[in-house]
Amino acid sequence: MFKKRSSLGLPSLGLPRTLSLQETLSSKKKRKGSLPNKPLLSISTMPTIQMDRYLTNEGHQLVASYLRLTQIQNHIIKGTLHKITEKDVDDLIKSYEGISTPVYETLSFQELNLSHDECKLLSKLLKADKITNVRNLKLAKNHLFGSSIKVILESLQKNSTVEILDLSHNHLSDNEAKWLGKLLKKNNTIKQIYLTHNRIGSDGAKYLSKALMINHSVERLSLESNQLNSNGGKFISDMLKVNNTLKYIHLGSNNLQLSGINDISESLKFNHSLISLSLDINNISSEGAKKLGESLQVNQTLTHLYIPRNNIGDEGLKFICQSLRKNSALIYLDLEFNSIGNDENTEGAKALGNLLENHYVPRAINLTHNIIGDEGCVEIFKGFHKNITLESIIFSHCNIGLIGIQAIAESLKLNTGLQNLSLNKNSNMGADGHLILAEALKFNTSLKGVQLDYNFAEWETVGNSIQQSLTRNHFLQKERYNTAINILIASRILLNPTLQQQLPTSLSCSTSPITSPIMSPVMSPVMSPLLSPLMSPITSPMLSPPPSPKKLSFIKSSKKKKIFTKLPFEIQETIISYLDTNHVLTEDEILQVVNFSMKKSTLGLTKDQFLSKCLSAYYPFSSDVRLWPTESTDQDFSSSDRF
């Protein structure tokens, strides 16, 4: 009845469809007899399960088909396309029909040297976009060019799911750029295109620029390390004057020369969408910096400007600093490797110091590999104690010694805004410089990140002291934020009865907009902990010992008394004052919070907006204070790589 098992696999059992599994086992038992001492389970007591249909040849075919399709899918995920055929892909796509969940979110085929046949298989997957649902297509380092890339680009013309296209490190020339331009004229789904390290020249820049004048989806374009030259810069400039979608563009290492930089600078006066521009390694010089500076006086949307390795010198830095006095948008300025401070020149440092003392942009500066020196540090930090908006400054490899560190330390004792300071690779500061900085941080209440070398014998003691100061600052800042939010909620309850039905329900520090409804202010559970120190002055832990409440001048205004609730205003003043138990806020800051609470227009704002308005700045704890967003969104790439 049964066939022997094959050593090469498990063949069909060959059971006739009219014979059930139970009958088969019963007949087998009759032939062999039963073991007298081991009546484990009688066949008559077994439930009747009709298993025939699962053990037929048809069942085996279904299993074999499933295993085959799974293997094909695994080959696609791994990128081993050479192990499958067009029929395999067709069968796999057919099997996906009816599946609503995405099958391939990301296809990462990098460094595989894809052949033309493999590219054709990939194009089949891309054409079946509604089924495969590919959103991120990474094809970097595949030596793609000619017909291989053409078949992929043609398939993307009909694709409506791919949003990120990475063709970096291939052999794309002007001809391939022409095909890519045709794609961008028809496709309005792709949002990010990476074309770094290819062979695209000025003609290719023309094709891409004409397409982007029409395209309304691409937000990020990286053309770093191509061969655009000055003519290509002119075409890019023409596109930027028209395009209102592009937000990030990387044009580094393209030999744009002064004329190309001038054209791009001119386009910034008309562009209102670009927020990040990278022009590194283009030999801008001081003249190019002057043109960029003139455009920054007009442009108020660009937030990130990267111009490292451009030899702008002190003269170029002066032009940029002068222009930024009329700019309120720039957040990040990258000036790495720009010959600033050469020949002991301090003019650029002096201009930067004046900017930081009297203006509120930028919020992060990278000065790595510039010879700032001690005298330059003295100039930069002369009035820095007045600055409250600069969050991060990087002085790695800047030839800073003991005098420079002393200038930085004295300024840090009074500065209240700086969050991160990098002083790596400044060997001249020595152990004494580290000690001076550690002592200064005992008085600083804002800095939360410091990068040092600690290359001396007593580094551990100094390192522990610095770490304690930074940790203290972190918790102090968190307490300031929580206290401000608690005072906001209490102020809205006590001082503005017209907003009672639109107030938050808890005192917790939330990132959501502060607009939740609440109960009547007198009976609200939120008010119980606020009133407890007044109702139970002996047993309340908040009054052991009681802090001296701040006398807030705004309470004495007769005009504001009219909108108070029925509680006496002295009690309201005391409640608000007791919320700042450790006196982490100044009277002016509390007044800012109260004034904020009195305005109905502020109910829709988020926590970030509230803290920025009332405390001058908001520094999220979830973000790394050393880093800022760059022109790249790849998670494997961070702005620290630029430093």
From TrEMBL:
It comes from the Eukaryota. Pfam families: LRR_6 (PF13516). InterPro entries: Leu-rich_rpt, LRR-containing, LRR_dom_sf. SUPFAM superfamilies: RNI-like. SMART domains: LRR_RI. This is F-box domain-containing protein.
